[in-house]
Specification:
single chain; alpha/beta; Rossmann fold; 2 domains; five-stranded parallel beta sheet; 18 helices; about 45% helix; binds adenosine-5'-diphosphate; binds magnesium ion
C-alpha cells in the first residue's frame, strides 16, 4: 500500500519508531515535532492520514484534531490518535475532537500497520463513492438453459464496444459452466476464481482490471473459472461491489447470468439498469419466462427495464408471436431467427457474428439491438467521430424509415 502519512509527536524516539515501521510498509512518512507544526504541515502537504500524539506542547492532539476538522481543506482527513493515555474518557475525548481511530502506546509495530492500513482503505473506499458510477449494466437472463443467453450476451457486449469505440465488460456469472471466454477464443488465464476468495475490501479497481481478459473487439471479460469449485467463494455482496467498481470505469457492462435465482444471479439482476429476458418459442420456454416475470414483479423491478427477446433455437414448429405475447401479457421486443450454422460456427471459431460478420443479417440484428439498448445520452447525439458500426446502424435505420408508407 502507498500513501502519505504525517506523524506528529514531541518524543523523537517515538517519532522514529513510527517512521521506521510505516516506511518499511511503503508509506511516505512526514514528521512534525509539536502540535502547531503538525497542524501547519497538514495544511501544506495534504497527507492521506495524520497520526497524532495527545500530550504535546503548544497545541495538544485534541486541539490539533478539532482545528483540522474546522478547516475545509482537512475536514475529512483521517486522524489516528496515538497516546499513552488509554482510559475510556481519554478515548472519548479523542473521538469527540474528531479522531477516526485510537491506538494506545506502547504499540506493537504490526498493530500500528494494521490500524493505518484499515484507515487508508476506508479512505480509498469512501473516495470511490464520489466517483460517478456512469456505466449501464445490462443483464441477459433466462430460467431455462440452452436458449442462447451466452450467445446474446457476447454479441451485445461486442456490438456495444464497436458502436461506441470504448471497452465494454462482459461479466460471466454463469458460474457452473461459464463459456464467455470460449465465445471469444480466449484462454482462461484469470477469472472470478482470482477475486472470489478475497475479502471484499481487498477487491480494488486495479486488481479487477488485471483479472479481465482482453479481446481485440474491445470486449473485456470477467470470466467464470473453468473449475467450478473455484467460483464457490463468490457471494452476492462481492458481485455487487465488483459491478459498482466496473460501472465507475466502463460505459457498458453486460452480464451473462445463470439460469436460476441464486444470490449471485440476484445481485446481478438487482444491479441492472436493463434486463433482457430470453425465451425459446415453445411451451417450456414460455413457462420459464412467465415464472421469471412473476419473480421480477415480486422483486418490484420496474416493467420498463425488462425486454423480451424470442430466440428461435430450433427451425420450425414453435408457438406464434401473438400466442406468446398473449401468454406473457406483454410485447416481444426482438426476434432472433434460427441460424444454427452461423451461431455454431461463431462459437467454434470464438468470434461472435456481430464482430466477425457485422454486415450479415444476424450481425446487423445484434448491432441494431446493441444500439437500442445504449444509453439515451449516447443515442441522442451523433458522436464526434462515428464508428463504422454507428454509421451502419444509422444507415439501416434510415433505410427502414424510407420504406415506411
Ligand atoms: N438463433 C439460434 N439459432 C440456432 N441455434 C441457436 C440460436 N441461438 C442459440 N443457439 C444454440 O443454442 C445453444 C445454446 O446457446 P447458449 O448461448 O450457450 O445458451 P445459454 O447460455 O442460454 O445456455 C448453442 O449451442 C447455440 O448454437
Ligand atoms: Mg450460457
Amino acid at each position: 500500500m502507498s500513501g502519505k502519512i504525517l506523524a506528529v509527536d514531541d518524543d523523537p524516539l517515538n517519532l522514529k519508531l513510527v517512521v521506521a515501521t510505516l516506511g518499511k510498509e511503503g508509506f511516505e512518512v512526514l514528521t512534525a515535532s509539536n502540535g502547531k507544526e503538525g497542524y501547519l504541515k497538514a495544511q501544506e502537504f495534504q497527507p492521506d492520514l495524520v497520526i497524532l500524539d495527545v500530550m504535546m506542547p503548544e497545541m495538544d492532539g485534541y486541539q490539533v484534531c478539532s482545528s483540522l476538522r474546522k478547516n475545509p481543506k482537512t475536514a475529512n482527513l483521517p486522524v489516528m490518535m496515538l497516546t499513552s493515555l488509554s482510559s475510556v474518557e481519554q478515548k472519548i475525548k479523542g473521538f469527540d475532537a474528531g479522531a477516526d481511530d485510537y491506538l494506545a502506546k506502547p504499540f506493537a509495530p504490526d498493530e500500528l500497520i494494521a490500524h493505518v492500513k484499515a484507515l487508508m482503505r476506508r479512505k480509498i473506499s469512501e473516495g470511490e463513492v464520489e466517483v460517478k458510477a456512469n456505466g449501464k449494466i445490462i443483464s441477459v437472463f433466462s430460467l431455462r438453459g440452452g436458449v442462447g443467453v451466452s450467445t446474446l450476451a457476447s454479441n451485445l457486449a461486442s456490438g456495444l464496444a464497436s458502436l461506441w469505440g470504448e471497452s465494454t465488460v462482459l461479466v460471466d456469472l454463469a458460474l457452473a459452466a461459464g463459456q464467455s471466454a470460449l465465445m471469444f477464443n480466449l484462454p482462461y488465464r484469470r477469472s472470478w476464481g482470482n477475486l472470489g476468495r478475497l475479502p471484499i475490501e481487498h477487491i480494488e479497481p486495479l486488481l479487477i482490471n488485471e483479472v479481465l481478459l482482453q479481446h481485440s473487439s474491445g470486449v473485456r471479460i470477467l470470466a467464470s473459472s473453468p473449475q467450478p469449485e473455484q467460483n464457490e467463494y463468490l457471494t452476492g455482496d462481492k458481485v455487487t461491489h465488483v459491478l459498482r467498481l466496473l460501472s465507475q470505469q466502463y460505459p457498458y457492462i453486460v452480464l451473462d447470468l445463470s439460469h436460476d435465482f441464486h444470490e449471485v444471479t440476484l445481485a446481478g439482476l438487482d444491479a441492472s439498469h436493463e434486463i433482457i429476458l430470453l425465451l425459446s418459442p415453445d411451451l417450456a420456454g414460455v413457462r420459464a419466462a412467465v415464472c421469471a416475470l412473476t419473480v421480477f414483479e415480486n422483486l418490484k423491478y420496474p416493467k420498463e427495464i425488462i425486454r423480451l427477446v424470442e430466440n428461435w433455437i430450433f427451425p420450425k414448429g414453435g408457438l406464434t408471436r401473438s400466442d406468446i405475447e398473449k401468454a406473457l401479457g406483454r410485447a416481444i421486443d426482438l426476434q432472433i431467427p434460427y441460424a444454427s450454422e452461423q451461431i455454431v460456427k461463431a462459437i467454434n471459431m470464438g468470434s461472435p457474428p456481430v464482430y466477425s460478420d457485422p454486415q450479415s443479417p444476424l450481425g446487423a440484428l445484434f448491432e441494431d439491438f446493441a444500439f437500442l439498448l445504449s444509453k439515451e445520452t449516447h443515442k441522442k447525439t451523433k458522436p464526434q467521430s462515428p464508428t463504422p458500426a454507428w454509421v451502419r446502424v444509422v444507415r439501416r435505420f434510415q433505410q427502414r424509415q424510407a420504406k415506411k408508407p
